[in-house]
Amino acid sequence: MRAGFDIGCCPILYAAQVKTRQLGWLLTRFPVNHSDNRKTTQQRQRVSRTRQIIEQNQNAEEIDITRVVESIMLDAIDANSSDIHIEPWDESLVVRFRLHGVLKEFEHLPLELAEKISARLKVMANLVNYETERPQEGHARAAGSEGGVELRLSFFPVVRGGQGHSFTRGEKIVIRIFDPKSRSFDIDQLGFDADTSATLQELLTRPTGMLLLTGPTGSGKTTSIYAVLCHLVRQCGSSISISTVEDPVEFNLPQISQAQINHAREFTYPVALRSLMRQDPQVIMIGEIRDAETAAIAVQAGLTGHLVISTIHAGSTAGVFARMINMDIEPFLLASSIIGILGLRLVCKNCPLCAMPYQPDPILLKRVPEDVRKDASWRRGGGCETCNDTGFTGRTALSEMLTVNEPIRDAVMGKVRIRKLQKMAQEQGMKTLWESGIFRAASGEIPLEEILRSVTEDPLA
Ligand SMILES: [Zn+2]
User: Fold this and answer.
1) What integer pLDDT is reported at residue 280 of this predicted model?
2) Crossing angle of helices 406-413/418-427, nearest 10°?
3) Is there a shared CATH topology between the 48-178 domain and the 187-454 domain?
4) CB of 347 within 8 A of CB of 190?
5) In this predicted model, what pLDDT tens digit does every residue of 265-319 receive, in sequence order?
6) What is the pLDDT of residues 270-279, one digit of tens each?
């Protein structure tokens, strides 16, 4: 059931909405959770700026697109959303906000506005505003909290329609919002357990070596890597030289030289890194290692007196070694250069104001070890005004830190199997993503379903 937003399509509710608006308030258009033991709330929400502008003009031709776009941004920023999704559905142009990690329908706009909104956003991001058949990406700034907010915009061509109708072209637009006030690049704020945080801070005191972060897209790698860089700046002040090469630069950091890859100008990772090495920075952050050439330069930098921090896609922390070997890096070079691998996943955490005890599905509980199950106090948010009825307040990182010590180094050089490497790391105290997730769910911080959605007991299976 699509609760909530349908107000705009129902004449009775619409009339009630217009009436209540005179009081300045109306029923929320955000959907309400209807899970078994969750309470149903009638949350109230201020009339959105966007809705006001749309309703002032009955004719889509007369709507001021600049104001509509601006109001979507302001509404999203006011709601503390991290992303705006704008996409054409069958009957309307749907605007959704990601609030506390969950996508929520915010407005349904007339489809006729789709092209104009897209063109306006492209102008803001200095992109080609009439190009609709190729993906485009860009940056812009929007008014918001002090100094405005950074926006990263992505335009992706899609088709819609079918069912006897011909396809119509459209675009799916995703806007990520980076509000400096709501983004804390602080290791202690990421949600890492005390052991991970302490190990990470110890690794950052090393003058040389490679620290790699791994996890799927949206697992918090960028935020974590920025927190690591800000930590170094806080620790060392202006005495440290830090340079980054990123694709793209997501956030401007103080006291750090950030370079953005530009494929059109052949400013690729290998080109940028080779040049950067001549400037000899102490710390080099590489946005992502995804090809053999970049991997080779990164390893070389890590072996020659630089602290290299980067991300890499791999199924698990131990799997990073296999991924690098597949990129033609010799095991002995890996063993000497990698100092630690941090595995990450982002999960939504319960809203403290509405979290209530609940009993997870018995089928899910079977996956939880007996000793954890018997002392668990499972909790889940039911939805309240503070959490926009999502049941969550923000996201937190699950972490798994594989520290490379002598036994692990020997094992990598001896080309042992990944599973054995993983087991060795666990025997030496590495807490896996699964273990830390289940523990935090059992303590009531995160719903069990969130953990099971994002981690598996055996990542190598
Ligand atoms: Zn709540």
Assistant:
1) 94
2) 170
3) no
4) no
5) 999 999 999 999 999 999 999 999 999 999 999 999 999 999 999 999 999 999 9
6) 999 999 999 9
251 contacts 226 by C-beta, under 8 angstroms: yes
Ligand 1 centre to CA of 291 (Å) is 44
Confirm whether pTM is higher than 0.90.
Answer: no
277 contacts 235 by C-beta, under 8 angstroms: no
CA of 354 to the centre of ligand 1 (A): 4
Domain definitions of the chain by residue range: 1-43, 48-178, 187-454
CA of 137 to the centre of ligand 1 (A): 34
Task: State in Å: Cα 449 to ligand 1 middle.
Answer: 17
Name the average pLDDT for the chain. 86
Ligand 1 midpoint to CA 366 (Å): 28
Q: Which of 431, 430, 432, 452 is nearest to 441 (CA)?
A: 452
Classify domain 48-178 at the CATH topology level: Beta-Lactamase (3.30.450)
pLDDT of res. 183: 65
The superfamily CATH assigns to domain 187-454 is: P-loop containing nucleotide triphosphate hydrolases (3.40.50.300)
Reading phi first (left if > 0) and then psi (alpha if -120 to 50, else beta), residue 282 is in alpha
Q: What is the pLDDT of residue 69?
A: 94
Give residue 350 CA to ligand 1 midpoint distance, Å: 8
